[in-house]
Amino acid sequence: MRLLRICLILLLLCFLLAVTAYADEGVYITGPETIYPREVFEIELWIDRSDVTKISFEYDVDWEHLEVQAIYPVDKTAWQSVPAMRGDAFERQKPGRGQPEAVFRVQLRLKTVDAGTRFWCHLRNVVLWVGDNPYPVGDILWERTAAQIVSDDNYLSDLRLSDCVLSPEFSPYQQNYTATVSHHVAQVSVLATARDEGARVQVDSPALEYGKTSNVTVTVTAENGSVRAYTIAVTREDAPDRIPSDNCDLQNMEVTGYKLSPEFQPDVTDYVLWLPYETTNVEIIATPADSKAAVTIVGNKGFKAGQDNPILVTCTAEDGTQKHYTIIAKRAEPYVPKPSETTAISSVPAMDGTVYTAAENIPTWVYVVVAVAAVTGCAAVGILVTDRKK
Q1: Which range scores top for mean pLDDT: 18-32, 270-284, 371-385?
Q2: Are 177 and 149 in contact (CB under 8 A)?
């Protein structure tokens, strides 16, 4: 009797060791760390034993906070749902690959809950099967906490400008508008209200110029970082008694990567630009002294080598007065190496009848005679290097 008890205890220990081994070797559930209310998400059951032929379990969900959308194998060619006495079971369809495998996937939806609400998913009575041999694992628990919803609302609920009326009428979904202000309005004030209290509003309302249109921009940034911009093209009327500016001077002119000759001065209109052969185009930055003036540049592309290439920079004042600045771009010719002094070749017969050649590459003011005699038996070879004037 005592021996029987010892045998039973040993069998029980072996069983417990087997169960512990399978549990320690990783039967686990994976899923997203952050889940928001009303969000649909998925969790998966993984095992890491290639000799497991089947897994069975009873599925238990926090039905108060979760809705089950679907349960299905991750890879139907590897695992397939099979009938079970209780709960669910998935059976292996092909040999294991010797690495962790996702067996099945559950699609869930978190209901409308408060941030911080705890919810869970249990697999109870999990059993791994190797052939016909069951190895109970026990229960596997997966839990998460509902995350705080971060708003993506980047709309305005109200938009108004002082001293003018928007066209079209404001709508949160209309992002582009126009408006006109009187000539005495130098800048407009903007009242912009975000629809979501967690959103940030930034306004850029520049100074308005007579007779010109400037963009007023309102940027709304939602809690999640998404951005929406509203733009109002505001036109300031011209003053009836205002005299347009006749300032057509340039404040500055430069060529990117190169220097003008002479250095730029507003009253100097003619310049030279020296360029290497490799340069065919240049970038010219010309800034008018009066912000109401306009600048045009012609001829700064397609330079021809070895020629004068004129570039015309024209500054047109507000009243139409123009001033022309000329830059002569001198692009170098391609480099051609000078021919080296040629070598003159002359034939010199040897005593034995063989013809040898002698090279002449000595300057004309030097006369050099080199005699080399190689005696082979009774024969002698002579090589004469001489200068020849062309």
Answers
A1: 270-284
A2: no
